[in-house]
Amino acid sequence: MDGIYRYQRYIYNATRKYYLLGRDRMISGLQAPDGGTILEIGCGTGRNLILAARRYPTANLYGFDISREMLATAKASVDRAGLGDRITLTEGDATAFDTQALFGLPHVDRAFCSYTLSMIPPWREVVPRALDAVGPGGSVHVVDFADMTRLPSWFRKATYKWLASFTVHPREDLEDVLRSSAEAAGAEMHFEPLYRRYAQLAVLTKPA
After folding, report:
1. Distance CA 88, CA 138 (A)
2. Are 145 and 117 in contact (CB under 8 A)?
């Protein structure tokens, strides 16, 4: 990850806004409670955490990433935004994290993954971890690439090839994996394909 993002991190936000669709919609759907806690799994440049902090001004936010290069950019962005007192960042592995060990929190109210599962080879291991991280009544929110089957075939093939050059691979069975993980945790799931199946958005809510 550090090798990939050592230089891309400087232009990441400016370029990704054109094709990482649905991120702001996911953040609006967090509906974090007053004084709640929000965790981003794979926080990248910190862009989403900063938006979430502004959207939910009484919440405390936490994020981790496996890339130290991205974390350096995230910390600088958070400081520039004047949100260092509300956003805590650290290094962590999405497939093997514990909120108590990372942040001293037994659980959080909301956790989200924004275009991270398509970048993590053992991505199926992340979903149960995310569900474990949220407490009773909490929810996990996921937005990522879909299978693009309702878009022209040439566009789908070109986009898949281009994404692969960044080691990004849309997870065509994401809905099935999320649903089975939700069932195992006793959680309810809302799933919504977006933009002619360019992207997909899911919310997994644990019982109170």
Report:
1. 20
2. no
